[in-house]
Design goal:
7-stranded mixed beta sheet; 7 helices; about 180 residues; alpha+beta
């Protein structure tokens, strides 16, 4: 939550209780990267019902309502997902690249696929210029002002075509991990 304070404007922050309930419902929604105990950055992607997807797509939606609507990965099948946030602590880690988080998200989607949870569509809301640039770099398509969509079944699970190997971290104390409740 401290990183959210640094990165997101107040109207785009989710309260701690809502986030805790989301993680209790589905602990496979956040990928966090730490250097020692310090949070470098995270990405949040969570499955949502079709009606919430449609609501986001319209451009008129409430972030807290979307988060409260997170689905658990219980049944093998196809899911829509909301890319809620990609955040990096650039103040403390100015050289940490978003590309590393994106690659961790790709691995996460592949792992979900192996378990039988297939993400078909990902929808995102760009709340900043860097967010917009990141979504464009990831080959998301803007379908409504600041609303971006990515079709995994059509476009694949590799978001960035210009691949640079970030899997071998130069600093051995940087570790991506899933955040579990």
């Amino acid at each position: 939550m401290d990183l959210d304070q640094k990165v997101f404007l107040p109207e785009f922050r989710i309260d701690e209780d809502t986030t805790r309930r989301r993680l209790e419902k589905n602990s496979f929604t956040d990928i966090a990267v730490f250097q020692g105990e310090a949070l470098m950055g995270y990405v949040s992607l969570y499955p949502i019902p079709r009606n919430i997807y449609t609501e986001i797509h319209s451009g008129y939606f409430d972030e807290s309502r979307v988060e409260r609507s997170t689905l658990p990965y219980q049944r093998i099948g196809v899911y829509d997902a909301y890319l809620c946030g990609i955040a990096i602590d650039k103040e403390q880690f100015p050289r940490f690249k978003v590309k590393f988080l994106i690659m961790q998200l790709e691995k996460h989607l592949q792992n979900l696929k192996k378990k039988g949870f297939f993400v078909n569509r990902i929808i995102a809301h760009a709340v900043s210029v860097p967010g917009r640039k990141t979504l464009e770099k990831m080959r998301f398509t803007e379908t409504y002002p600041n609303i971006f969509v990515y079709f995994c079944f059509r476009q694949g699970y590799l978001f960035i075509k210009d691949r640079q190997d970030y899997s071998s971290n130069r600093k051995t104390n940087i570790h991506p991990k899933m955040v579990y409740v």
